[in-house]
Amino acid sequence: MGVTGSQTPGEMLMGLVDRLYVINLPVRADRRRDFAGELRRIGLSFEDPRVVLYPAQRPDEPGGFGSVGAHGAFLSHLGVCEAALTAGARAFCVCEDDLDFHPRFAARIGPLASLLGAVPWDIVYAGHDGTVAGRALAGRPEVLELAPDRPVGQLHFVLFRAAAAVRLRDHLRAMLQGPGQGTPMPVDAAIAMFRAANPDLRTLAIAPPLGHQRPSRADIARLPLYDRLPVLRDMADVLRGLRRRLSA
User: Fold this and answer.
1) How far, in Å, CA of 195 to CA of 183, rounded?
2) pLDDT tens per residue, range 93-151
3) Residue ranges per domain, the chain?
4) N or C: which end of the chain has fewer CB within 10 A?
5) Out of the domains of life, which is the source (predicted)?
6) What are phi and psi of 62, to 5 degrees?
7) How far apart are alpha carbons 35 and 50 in whole angstroms?
8) In angstroms, rounded to a whole number, what is the distance separating the alpha carbons of residues 28 and 107?
């Protein structure tokens, strides 16, 4: 894994990881289509064997979580972790299918990839809500080192090293075992708890983030009325697309 100046933005990202996993519910062809466009924009595609479309899970019951969607998100992130480790990935990237890469991704990824390729890290939040705070790494204010107890509330664009992923997999599996192993909680909160319990792991965050969540119909929360009725849902999707283009 490495970075050279002649590479596409996507290749620079892939110089840091062996696999890029995209979590997508099979029924959400709209998100699959949008993310295919994002991949093309940085020089990647779903045809690349390193880019893995991971079918998100949608269980029948909440199973102690706040919703069926929250349960499914937890199982999906755990499943990606298991799949990456089974594939022998030394490092991997997890993208949720509502990720939009930063408009200046192409200009920013080269220097960031070079720095990340030269320093030790276990987890990198390339996407987040923009409110993270930490210590600038190696005099570079765009890369922050986060304290173990500093939670990050979004998981739409995260990189993991395999050694950290092994421990995370075991942590998430244990949380599903019932009383005494942790109360079911959203997966971002579970990973925050994991980081706090493993202070030796080095967590970095890119600031500003390299990607954000695009306006899209939710899969986790109970859908509002306008996303449950077909005609209103189609209108809402059009408006979200317009909002996305205007904010780009």
Assistant:
1) 16
2) 999 999 999 999 999 999 999 999 999 999 999 999 888 889 998 788 899 999 999 99
3) 9-214, 223-248
4) C
5) Bacteria
6) -60, -30
7) 15
8) 30
